[in-house]
């Protein structure tokens, strides 16, 4: 069996995948980055503004980027965050993302999206780079619960965003808002 | 940060309009630096505090696409990058790179 026999079909297949299905190819490529790495959504979002004729080159370039930046990030050790014991949920340095999710009952994807889009930023510490964790305060937790209640009641994310802005600017007590939103399902 | 051709190209692209938000693909186009080099440079600038980043507000997007990440120069970044560019003017390595923007007086 000759190797050359597979060469051209392979090249053509690569061109078809990269050229005709750039979105698909790029979504596969960004998976080289570790989970929740901002580059995963950043690069895919950027593809939407690239003209069609440049997308082949764009995807090919990002394969290089993902290999040179994403893979090392994946294997980098995380020395500066000591593992927190699961029992100490209410530790002095706040709540971690997964804890917030399980307490409030939302998915990590939602929480991550809210943090990135400024709907709910962790007030104790932000995730600065890989390995550092977001830390949420008790107040954040209450706010998170309010947002969840609003969304459950059928309020759109945009309205919830506005509601939270009003809530924050009025410095109202979040705990009361929590009770209020529980009753006002037609907000 | 060591001044390289790529860094200088990115610096020129950023400082071309220091006030506004910069986007990844747009920076690639304007600086002529490929993404494999550009993004690590942006990452370093973020770490140094020369840039700050953020995500578009999904409520403001008209087209059906996810929010994009933007980069903005901080005042520290403006100063540092201004320094990088004005130093590059004294470096013979960068003469061909700086020649086309000779007309812009701010960096002389």
Task: Tag the structure with descriptive keywords.
heterodimer, A: 187 residues, mainly alpha, 9 helices, B: 108 residues, 3 strands, 11% strand
Quick description:
Chain A is mainly alpha-helical. Helices cover 59% and strands 2% of the residues of chain A. The A-B interface holds A 38-39, 41-46, 48-50, 58, 61-62, 64-65, 68-69, 116-118, 129, 157-158, 161 and B 23-26, 28, 34-36, 39-40, 43, 47, 54-55, 57-59, 63, 65-69.
What does this structure look like?
The complex is a heterodimer of chains A (187) and B (108). With 187 residues, chain A is mostly helical. Chain A is 59% helix and 2% strand. Chain A has nine helices and two strands; from the N terminus they run H-H-H-H-E-H-H-E-H-H-H. A two-stranded antiparallel sheet of chain A has the order 1-2. The longest helix of chain A has 21 residues, at 55-75. The radius of gyration of chain A is 22 Å and the shape is elongated. Chain A starts with a helix and ends with a helix. Residues 87-91 of chain A have low confidence and may be disordered. Chain B has helices spanning 5-16, 24-31, 35-48, 75-88, 95-98; strands at residues 22-23, 51-55, 69-73.
Layout: helices, strands, pairs:
The complex is a heterodimer of chains A (187) and B (108).
Chain A: H1 4-20, H2 22-29, H3 38-47, H4 55-75, E1 95-96, H5 97-104, H6 108-116, E2 135-136, H7 138-152, H8 157-169, H9 174-183
Antiparallel strand pairs in A: 1-2
Chain B: H1 5-16, E1 22-23, H2 24-31, H3 35-48, E2 51-55, E3 69-73, H4 75-88, H5 95-98
Antiparallel strand pairs in B: 1-3, 2-3
